[in-house]
Amino acid sequence: YEQLQCDEKAKLPPKTLSFKRWSELLNAHAQSATVLQELEYWTTEPRRNVGKLPVDPAGDNNADSPRSLSVALTAEETLLLLQEVPRAYRTQINDVLLAALAQALSEWTRDERVLVDVEGHGREEIVEGCDVSRTVGWFTTVFPVLLEVSNSSGLGETLKSVKEQLRRVPNRGIGYGLLRYLRGEETISSQLEKLPQAQVSFNYLGQLDQIFRDLLFTSARIAGVVVINFFIPLRDF
Length: 237
Description:
single chain
């Protein structure tokens, strides 16, 4: 864009790994012993005993039935959330948001175990030299995170506990999808499919204002700098 703005011919750097080659490497990695070693983590006993959310047992389930709730933070609250809290507890923003979500769900369900699907950008370097920084495509990882929180603990203790639990997720969760969908072993796929499935999906989209650091792009009716998506079904499916 800057080159065209200056009436120059657009010259792009070489592409990185092709999407086709990436998918081949991903499939090969799914067959490795390294990924298989993660199976024990994803099938541990606590994951077999996760309760469901207390949703409505009946009702409409169509395009007209969803409802949304929007909550906005002030600029001061946003600054504290993004900078002061992570700095004080040496955490990442995802740790803080997931700790708050886990505590809210735990109080709602009266269960100290909370299962949440966490979505990541999916562009991790799965094998050495797997560079997709300039590869066009949608890369996403979705994996179930089991968080244990205690309603008797303080906010700081809960945050530290959630942080430690998230750090124990192997390879940022990419192995779950590889084992369930790419490994090609029916016993493993069936084992993961039969486990309780998360009913809440978490996706932190980041600080959108960092995208608009120059005059080439501006925001379009976006208020604030933090966007968080949660999905909760209206009733059990």
